[in-house]
C-alpha cells in the first residue's frame, strides 16, 4: 500500500472487518495487518474468505475468518465472540458489508430493496450492537463504510441512497451514545474506487469509467489504498477527537451533488 503510517502503529491491536473478504474492506484489513494488527474478517462466502486469509497470511498478517451473514444477529455475535476469544478485545470494528445492484425503483422488488437495507443498515447495526461490549475501552473505534449516495440522490440507487443515509445516521447516533465510553464512531464515504465489486457493477465498462473520471474533480478513480489510509487515520491517535464524522474520500465527487449524475 502507499502507506503514510509507520510500521507497527497497530501492533497488539485487534481489528474486525465485516465484508472483509474483498474490495475496499479487504484492503483495509491488509493495511491494518501491515501496521501490525491481528485481523478478523467476516464474510458470507467461505471460498472468498479462504482466498482473503491466504493473501493476508502471505503478507505476514495474523488473521482469522468467520463465515456469517451480517443480517443474522446471532451469527455476527457468535463470530465476534470467537474472534475475541482468539485475539482479545476489539480495538477497531470496520462495518463494510454492503449490497448493491443498479436498478430503477420500478424494476426493484420490495425484497430487492429490503435486501440492501438489511445488509447495509441492519448489518451495520448488528455488528455495532454485538461488538460494543467486546470493545477495548476507552480508545476503541468504529468505522462504518458509507457512500456519496447517503447525501446525493442517484437514479438507479434508491435502495443504496436510503441505506447509506441510514448508516450515516447510525454513525452519528452511536457516536453520541458511545462517546462517554471512549468509543469513537465515524463513517468513510468512498467515491468511485478501482478494483471494487461496486464500481464494476456501476461503471464496469471503459466508456462509463472514462465519463466518471471526467466528472470527478480530481479526474481519476480512487484506489483502495486511498480508503485504507483514511481508515488508518480514523482508528489512530491522530483522530482521537474525531467522532460522528462522515469522511468523504471521493476525489470531490460529492461536491458535484446531483450534477454528477445529470451531466
Ligand atoms: N436487479 C433487480 N433486483 C435484484 C438484482 C438486480 N440486479 N439483484 C438482486 N435483486 C433482487 C432479487 O431479485 C431478490 O428479490 P426477489 O426475491 O423479489 O426476486 C432480492 O434482490 C434479493 O436477492 P437475493 O439474491 O435473494 O439475496 P441476496 O441476499 O444475495 O442479496 C444482493 C442480493 C444483490 C443485494 C447481494 O448479493 C449483493 O449486494 N451482492 C453484491 C455485493 C456488492 O456489490 N457489494 C459492493 C457494494 S458497493
Write structural notes for this entry.
The protein has 263 residues and is of the alpha/beta class. It has one domain: Rossmann fold. 44% of the residues lie in helices and 14% in strands. The protein has helices spanning 23-34, 46-58, 73-87, 110-131, 158-178, 197-202, 206-215, 224-235, 259-262; strands at residues 14-18, 38-43, 63-67, 92-95, 141-145, 184-190, 246-249. Helix 1 packs across helix 8, helix 3 (73-87) runs parallel beside helix 4 (110-131) and helix 4 (110-131) runs parallel beside helix 5 (158-178). The chain starts with 13 loop residues before the first strand and ends with a helix.
Q: Concise description?
A:
With 263 residues, the protein is α/β, with parallel strands linked by helices. 44% of the residues lie in helices and 14% in strands. Helix 1 (23-34) packs across helix 8, helix 3 (73-87) runs parallel beside helix 4 (110-131) and helix 4 (110-131) runs parallel beside helix 5 (158-178).
* Distance between the first and last residues' Cα: 33 Å
The strand order across the widest sheet is 3-2-1-4-5-6-7
Low-confidence stretches are: none
Bound molecules: coenzyme A
Percent in strands: 5-15%
The coarse overall form would be globular
Count up the domains.
1
Provide the residue-averaged pLDDT: 95
